[in-house]
Amino acid sequence: MGKKTIDTRLKSLLNADFEREGGDIGQPYLENRIFTNRTIKMSRIKAVGFDMDYTLAEYKQDALDQLTMKLALNLLVDRNGYSEEILKIPYKPGFTIRGLVIDTLTGNVLKMDKFRYVSLAYHGLRPLDSDRRAAMYNATRIDFHSGRYRSVDTLFELLETYLFAAIIDHVDQAEGPRDDYTELYRDIRNAIDTCHSDGSLKKQIMSDPDHYIKSDPMLIPALHKFREAGKRLFVVTNSEPDYTDFMLTYLFRNASPFFKGWRHCFDLVGSAARKPTFFNEGQPLEIIEDGDNLFFSGGNLDFLEERLRIKGDQVLYVGDHIYGDILKSKHSTHWRTCIIVPELEFQVRAEEEAKPFLMELLANETRRKQLTMELTWRRGQVYDLHQFKESEADELERNHLERIDERIEELDRQLEHHNRELSDLLFQSRDLRRRISNTFNSYWGRLFKTGGQLSNFAEQIRDYACIYTSAVSNFNFYNGQVYLESMVSPMPHEKNLYPVGDVNFDASLDGGRHPNELPLAEAVDLDPSSEEGIEEVEDRQEDLSTEESITSPAPG
């Protein structure tokens, strides 16, 4: 090894440090942990595979969304005849989070818990009040096989959801509400698909990748760490070969001295995979390059495992798409799974920011439950005394009746005092819920919780991802043979008092007020930037995501 190479590598190692978004340098944070649902012994993992978009390459969400919105709105005007007024619709970051469901018929966007109960809903950009929401969604179970509902599973779909809501807001104000918004949704969906498939979106990204792709100096060291631990590495992405080549070349532009380029990192790179079909029948195979590194298009799971000479639970697959990457791979293979959740960084920081409010709300809720139990008990005592006085009137003396009346009066005073305390607690808790909800997302609250339950998105991560983390680079903080041990979830009776996780502080509890209408004093100064099971979720997602695999750069 020449002196220049040694100096270069030494400089790289000396300067290798973790940089947190915002400029802080020097140490990992809680949001950089790998969280474990199902225990994994990394010493047993022989191959690690990756999706590309939003996994190896994380996009700058606002920049990508604004570009996509501009292209899609122009298509809606030029191709579908929409009014040019929609071109004036402003981009509003933060309206959409993953795990929502679009009701394409009514034009509503829904947030559901793990039991598919709709806890929050918006029509356009306006919240539905609790009575209307209950009338529309609580009487019957939502049928995901109807084709009416669309699940927001990927970060690419956030803009699509916002556009749907924003255009509904515009159309309703201009023309009045419609009975059916299905055609509008279909037009928006087709416009965004066209932006991906006609190359216009990719062309813009490739012309200025620094503007659209986040820089992660820890990515290449993480991949090198896997290789040093003896793991074979591969990529399976839905993106076309030319875009895959460009994007990997860009990600590895400063890879020296760890790798000469992406071809020296990955054993196999599969493009145009059309996941999730890749995990079953797949597509016609085309070999693009064959040598030490195999670069191919199409193919399927059997071909990949045959070339790797590794299969089953010796493979860990890392992706960002709960359906295309995680659920399907888990159902079709014995691969272990890791889902990348970039939003986790903000969610963990927001938990820290909201902790004082959370603790205060937790204390309020504990006291409220105690008061409720005591009020029930005291009211029961009053009732029993009245019943006793009436039923035993013939046997009671004057002094007996006076003692009963005195006790009833004493209990009534206690009830009045407790009632006033309860009213104060309820008002304080309502205010705290608003503050907490705004800390996370002023429209939807926490990503992983709703109504005191796990959100539908969180439940899917828990059920189908063995591990989850905010970025591939977080593997830098773990040994390549690390033992990732899951926690045993306690039963409700095993929990200490009333856990924060079960406290409901969704924005819906403000009575359906629009987030912008909340008093300024309530806003938190934070940048807002079992198995019911596999087969049912599969059927639902297949109904909702029939066009998923043609989107490129594609989720998966």
From TrEMBL:
Renumbered residue ranges of the record's region Disordered: 508-556
Record NCBIfam families: HAD-IG-Ncltidse
Entry's Gene Ontology molecular function annotations: 5'-nucleotidase activity; metal ion binding
Entry keyword set: Coiled coil, Hydrolase, Magnesium, Metal-binding
Lineage: Bacteria, Pseudomonadati, Acidobacteriota, Holophagae, Acanthopleuribacterales
PANTHER family from the UniProt entry: 5'-NUCLEOTIDASE DOMAIN-CONTAINING (PTHR12103), CYTOSOLIC PURINE 5'-NUCLEOTIDASE (PTHR12103:SF15)
Record protein name field: HAD-IG family 5'-nucleotidase
Biased composition (Polar residues): 547-556
Coiled coil segments of this chain: 401-428
Family assignment from sequence similarity: Belongs to the 5'(3')-deoxyribonucleotidase family.
Name of one Pfam family that matches: 5_nucleotid
Biased composition regions of type Acidic residues, renumbered to the chain: 524-546
Domain of life of the organism encoding this protein: Bacteria
